[in-house]
Amino acid sequence: MNAMLGQWLGGRADHVKGVIAPLFVVLVLAMMVLPLPPLMLDVLFTFNIAIALTVMMVAARMVRPLDFAAFPTVLLITTLLRLSLNVASTRVVLMQGHTGAAAAGEVIESFGHFLIGGNFAVGLIVFAILVVINFIVVTKGAERIAEVGARFTLDAMPGKQMAIDADLNAGLIDEKEAKRRRLEVSEEAEFFGSMDGASKFVRGDAVAGILILVINIVGIGILRELGPMLASIISAGRSGSAVTAQLGVMRVTEEVEALAVMGISITTRLVLPRVLGLAVALPLVTFCTDIAALGGAMVVCDFTLGISPGAFLQAVPRAVDVVNFWIGIGKAAAFGFAVAFIACHYGLRVLPNTDSLAVGVTRSVVASITCVIILDALFAVLLRNVG
């Protein structure tokens, strides 16, 4: 193959060979910046899987480490390719995921159907298992093996050099054989040293992959969806029920009728302050919920995945657009308005007896939570292309 390439390119073969590897690295890095169509993602994922299988079969046939001396370099390049594909596919999923399961290509969709059968709960469990296997077992084990192998090889170098010099002085080998053995010892040490560095890079790639997914799930899920939703449900159960009970008690004690007799507007005096108050307070509660949830995720990542708080905080702004935060705050305000309005509605409908008060509070909480879920689904449809 090299002879045919040299014959075809003539005297420029060496120059072309020297440009291929840097050009490939530049193209791989460009994948992190440029958006890729689903067809290109399919081709690149298939190419990545084929390279991985080829490298695995070649490595399995190795007898000596130097039989595949380029393995550390190949490992670095393939790891960089995988990281770029991770970033590119994540971008497509976040931007076009609403269009269907095949938004990021047929390969990702096929793996999804094959591994989890379209079940979201099964996917989370399988993903957690794969993370444990990949990061804790495979990556850390390979890193430790490469580190120990490099250390023992470097420690044995002086002894091997002395053995070669002793054989040369004893006349057992000639100068040419001594040079060959010295070169082999040097290349072997360089190989294990490169493997140690490559294993660190692979571990960084595993951490980056986990960090990308965790930040996407935690950041977007909390700031845009879970934060406003949880804060609204809790407020519906506590503040909403309290408002309904307060207005219901005023109905039982006939204070509402007394206000009407005095010519005081019930809407202005009782309803409007509560609606506006909860519409303003719920975004603040949501902000506190976001901070607490992100802080908890940061601590969990630090203790379980080894992701430092600094790296977590630096990755959040890059992975999660600030518009998702403002969408969550806006949804919280709308949820607060709806919860307060429903609570006031059921509170003012309470009949002047205690049984009606209990029924009104229960219906208010159920209706508020149902309304929050419906509004969240409506916002998800309307804002699917935003953020």
Secondary-structure blueprint:
Blueprint: H1 2-9, H2 13-30, H3 38-60, H4 71-96, H5 106-116, H6 120-169, H7 175-252, H8 255-261, H9 266-305, H10 309-319, H11 322-348, H12 354-382
Helix pairs in contact: 2-4, 3-4, 4-7, 6-7, 7-9, 7-10, 7-11, 7-12, 9-11, 11-12
Can you walk me through this structure?
There is one protein chain. The protein is mainly α and 387 residues long. Among the domains are: 7-94 and 103-116, no CATH class; 215-382, no CATH class. It contains 12 helices and no strands. It has helices at 2-9, 13-30, 38-60, 71-96, 106-116, 120-169, 175-252, 255-261, 266-305, 309-319, 322-348, 354-382. It is elongated, with a radius of gyration of 32 Å. The two termini are 49 Å apart.
Jot down its keywords.
387 residues, mainly alpha, 12 helices
TL;DR?
It contains 12 helices and no strands. Among the domains are: 102 residues, no CATH class; 168 residues, no CATH class.
